[in-house]
Amino acid sequence: MPIVISAKKDKFRRCGVAHSEQATTYPDGRFTKEQLAVLKAEPMLLVQEVPDDGVIAKAPAPAKMKLDELKALCDKLEITYPADATKKVLAGLVEKHTAEPPEA
After folding, report:
1. Would you call 94 helix, strand, or coil by DSSP?
2. Distance (Å, whole) CA 73 – CA 96
3. What is residue 25's three-state secondary structure?
4. Is 103 exposed, middle or buried (0-12, 13-18, 19+ CB in 10 A)?
């Protein structure tokens, strides 16, 4: 299945590729299973598999996610949060850590 990758910082390198801030589609088989695992785990990259119908689902806004979904996303992004964090706090942390950097 093809994948689409974009970087939070232009020319961020991972798995031998300088990834662009612009979404780039890679064909099925371009990366090994091990490389795909590394790419998906990298918080500086947004990696999405393209289903057979070619339609990429857009991730829900953090404010619309459930508490357990937000905790899982924070864990994936390696965002530290208090054990008793509310949905609002977690959504704010996710938005802060995934926001586009300001233009210089």
Report:
1. helix
2. 13
3. strand
4. exposed
In this structure, what token pair is assigned to residue 54? 């070619």
Question: Mind listing the pLDDT tens digit for each residue in 18-69?
Answer: 998 888 888 888 999 999 999 999 999 988 887 766 555 556 677 788 899 8
- From the list 42, 58, 59, 40, the residue with the least C-alpha distance to 1 is 40
97 token code pair: 């850590």
Averaged confidence pLDDT in the chain? 83
Q: How far is CA 93 from CA 4, 13, 47, 81, in A?
A: 25, 25, 20, 8
Give how far Cα 28 sits from Cα of 6, 24, 40, 51, 64, Å. Answer: 16, 13, 15, 11, 32
